[in-house]
Amino acid sequence: MSDYSKEEQEHVIKAVGRFEQMLRLKEAYYFEHDDLETIIAYYLEGNFHQKALKAIRFATGQYPDSSVFLLRKSQLLASSGDFEAALALLEELEIFEPGNVEIYITRGGINSMLGKPEASIAAYKLALKIDRSLEDVYLFIAFEFQTLQKYGQAARYLRKCLQMNPDNEPALYEMSFCFDISGKYKAGIQFFNEFIDEHPYSATAWYVLGHMYSGRQDFKRAASAFDYALVIDETYTSAWINKAGCLMALEQYKDAIACYKAAIKLEEPDGYTFLHIGECYENLEEHQQAMDYYQKAVELDEGIADAWAGIGVLMDYAGRSTEAMAYIRRAINLEPENGNLWVLLGDMQQRCGDYQAAEECFEKAITVSPELEEAWIYFSDFLMLQQRADDAFVVMTTCLQYHHENARLVYQSCEVMLRAGREAEAMLMCEFALDLDYKMHEKMLEELPSFGLNSEIRRLIDINRPI
To answer: Can you spell out the DSSP letters for 437-459?
Structure first.
């Protein structure tokens, strides 16, 4: 109703009132075809399905040859879950009006609801055979190809949609999604740059271009693209948020905070916006400000594990380790499969002298997040500090099953082997590490004590020096 003019609203209310009066009095009034369409649309928009069905029954009685009302009945049956009856009605309609595109669009929508994307695509294509200018149908077909995970096919139809209407924002977002989920960021950057060449004032196009650059970890160009989107539309909240994320990645924390605060002025913030502001302040070592924003985050959304963890880390900085661990545990309760949280708790337990609890935490970390480099380093370092180099060797042997091409962990394994008295194996591991990343050895000489003090290791470093 909000899309109607005042005069149109009055007409709708009058028509609906007259129809309901007829039902109340159990009489039979005559209605113009357009008025019945208006009444049915009013009920459907308001989700008054039973009233809509009564109006459709009345309309098909008064206008038995009208396909419009039969189509509405089919759509209503589908929305009520009676898909079989809805499709059967469409089949009847198709016999009499094979050139009615609404039949095929409705059939496509019903098959989509039934989880039959191939049948849905076939129906939509029949609609396009009748009328190739149906912009939304290209978009509908793209959605079905996305369901089938055929993102190239989806993109082909999205291109057609954008050729017809470059201002179709859903099509731009869906095109970005196709490039993103298939990891084709380079192709996405090329496509959106070409699109922008023709439509330079499309804020949405600049925004999705920023997403493509972010996907390639090119945060400087991404931030620039989000900037252009904001020049065109300074109220584009998502552009402010995403620009802030890029600036965080670039360690420009003050500028990131300014962007997040600009977003807050435009829309009611969610807890994650406060979380990210807190992270920025923490990185700037403004701990009280960081604490304030972490607390705002959990006040708004108690389910944000990282905010609880942030509070815990700040308390740990302040020497309140016992309280800090309570907050880390609260975060773990929310995300028990988050290895970073288990590492945090293990490190605190270790510093508090509860070595058994620390070991359990580190073991849990490598179990739930074997992909996490930091977990293996913390666990093996912990075991070596406990004079348990053989146990550390077992841990790092398991680690290399996951990370045999991770240079940092291969160097760590070399250190563990030296500490466990497995010098021959350590030399082989050292050569492998140098082959993976020769330059990293400079940092490892400082961080890994046995590695740095071993003369044979230094000899291997010299003879493996790149020419």
So the answer is: -STTHHHHHHH-HHHHH-HHHHH
